[in-house]
Specification:
With about 425 residues, the chain is α/β, with parallel strands linked by helices. The protein contains twelve helices and 20 strands. It has helices at about 15-25, 75-90, 105-120, 130-140, 155-175, 180-195, 205-210, 245-250, 285-295, 310-320, 360-365, 390-405, and strands spanning about 5-10, 30, 40-45, 50, 65-70, 75, 95-100, 105, 200, 215-225, 260-265, 270, 305, 310, 325-330, 340-350, 350-355, 365-375, 405-410, 420. The longest helix has 21 residues, at about 155-175. The chain is globular and about 65 Å long. The structure holds guanosine-5'-diphosphate (GDP), 6-O-phosphoryl inosine monophosphate and magnesium ion. Pathway: Purine metabolism; AMP biosynthesis via de novo pathway; AMP from IMP: step 1/2. Plays an important role in the de novo pathway of purine nucleotide biosynthesis. Catalyzes the first committed step in the biosynthesis of AMP from IMP.
């Protein structure tokens, strides 16, 4: 039985939440493997809209066990408020499992994220300010606090002291902020311990057993391929690996057990925060995509930068993730354009290049080479099969498939659960 990875093929916000939720009904476990509450996934079920940040989107499907893997960074206060928000709306969250090895975002990580951005000035990354980068930095520096530390008070104090030793010097001397008392942090963290204890489990063991027992396990990426710390547009990236390999390290399930990797791909492109974006539109078309697509961040409320579809990026996502399938989302947003530009290659310093430049300098200079595909005006939101789509919309999808290097197995024609055309099964 399959273990699937579902991830963003662009810069995030491709519609991963909807895609995960759609599969949720036929999946036994949905696992978040990286990132934290920097993510913002919108799921529309009937007349209800849910905005999820830290919890896997599978939490909305009864029968599906949601798992927060070891690769995720967990802000306990955000987690508990997200859980109580869902409970208040009648969603059962009791099946949630959290890895004891996941790292905790503490208030000092959030503070450091914000002061660092301020310090960077115009070189800032445009982070979500949720403490993601500093928490992963502590993990790699081996001064992080893990979920399991909540259950050993003396270890917790030792670790928080070690983590703050250096940071307090930096805070006071560089950022002119008051030092943070370790005891105060420990007291706050201990306040979460009892509320979280029941969810903590050996998720690696459980997930491997689940795959071996023939259960369907879905790994849900936060962010997208180009925000990956290794394969994205560094330094304008998040501090973890949303790419497919991250599903293995972030969950403890090995690559031989993954049967499918599905890339969620928007029919155009968006990005939040700073960094290069070759097909970005700063004109009326960009404004129209933002308005029609509702392109406003779920987490920070920032307007998303918008541009045309970029096939170079889609091909790159296929390569670095080993994608087997694409889920093409938001095709409906493109209805009404007479012709739709699609970036098929770049021009870098006068030369045409077909692949994403590995040099960041070249990528910053990359100019899109466009092909123009004929548009359509018919409403496609009621389409249930590929044949229901107007001929030009069919041709647009086929052209994207041809350029992107993996088959398009599903198409989103609206935000709702049922506004999807399934061409090939994911299972
Ligand atoms: P995620 O971060 O990848 O889960 O995506 P977001 O939730 O941040 O952004 C995607 C937005 O597009 C959400 O508002 C979804 O409800 C919406 N959406 C998803 N698929 C479609 C689609 O096929 N058509 C339209 N119009 N909206 C969609
Ligand atoms: P989902 O899961 C879009 C961006 C931020 C910033 C960079 C680093 O909804 O696709 P961070 O706070 O992670 O250190 O910020 O990454 N970013 C996202 N952009 N969607 C997201 O999540 C994002 N999570 C982080 O805007 O540019
Ligand atoms: Mg999002």
């Amino acid at each position: 039985m399959p273990a699937l990875v579902l991830l963003g093929a662009q810069w995030g916000d491709e519609g991963k939440g909807k895609a995960t939720d759609l599969l949720g009904g036929s999946v036994d476990y949905v696992v978040r493997y990286q990132g934290g509450n920097n993510a913002g996934h919108t799921v529309v079920v009937g007349d209800q809209t849910y905005a999820l940040h830290l919890l896997p989107s599978g939490i909305l499907s009864p029968g599906c066990v949601p798992v927060i893997g070891n690769g995720v960074v967990v802000d306990p206060s955000v987690l508990l408020s997200e859980l109580s928000g869902l409970n208040a709306r009648g969603i059962d969250t009791s099946k949630l499992l959290i890895s004891g090895n996941a790292h905790l975002i503490t208030p000092y990580h959030e503070t450091l994220d914000k002061v660092t951005e301020r310090f960077l000035g115009k070189r800032k990354i445009g982070t979500t300010g949720r403490g993601i980068g500093p928490t992963y930095a502590d993990k790699i520096n081996r001064v992080g606090i893990r979920v399991q530390d909540l259950f050993d008070e003396s270890i917790l104090l030792q670790k928080v002291e070690a983590a703050l030793d250096f940071k307090n010097q930096v805070m006071a001397k560089l950022y002119n902020r008051r030092a943070i008392a370790p005891e105060q942090v420990v007291e706050e963290l201990l306040g979460y311990a009892d509320q979280l204890r029941g969810y903590v489990a050996d998720t690696t063991l459980l997930l491997n057993n689940a795959v071996d027992d023939g259960k369907v396990v879905l790994f849900e990426g936060g962010q997208g391929t180009l925000l990956d710390v290794d394969h994205g547009t560094y330094p304008f990236v998040t501090s973890s690996n949303p790419t497919a390999g991250g599903a293995c390290t972030g969950s403890g399930v090995g690559p031989t057990k993954i049967s499918r990797v599905i890339g969620i791909l928007k029919a155009y492109t968006t990005r939040v925060g700073a960094g290069p974006f070759p097909t970005e539109l700063l004109d009326a078309d960009g404004e129209a995509l933002r308005r029609i697509g509702g392109e406003r961040g779920v987490t920070t409320g920032r307007d998303r930068r918008c541009g045309w579809f970029d096939a170079v990026i889609a091909r790159y996502a296929t390569r670095v993730n080993g994608l087997t399938d694409f889920f093409l989302t938001k095709l409906d947003v493109l209805t009404g354009w007479e012709r739709i530009p699609v970036c098929v290659a770049y021009e870098v310093d006068g030369k045409r290049v077909e692949e994403l430049p590995y040099s960041q300098t070249d990528f910053h200079h990359a100019k899109p080479v466009y092909e123009y595909l004929p548009g359509w005006t018919e409403d496609i939101t009621k389409a249930k099969s590929f044949d229901d789509l107007p001929k030009n919309a069919q041709a647009y999808v086929k052209a994207l498939e041809e350029m992107s290097g993996a088959r398009i197995s599903a198409i989103g024609v609206g935000p709702g659960r049922d506004e999807t055309i399934q061409i090939h099964s994911f299972l």
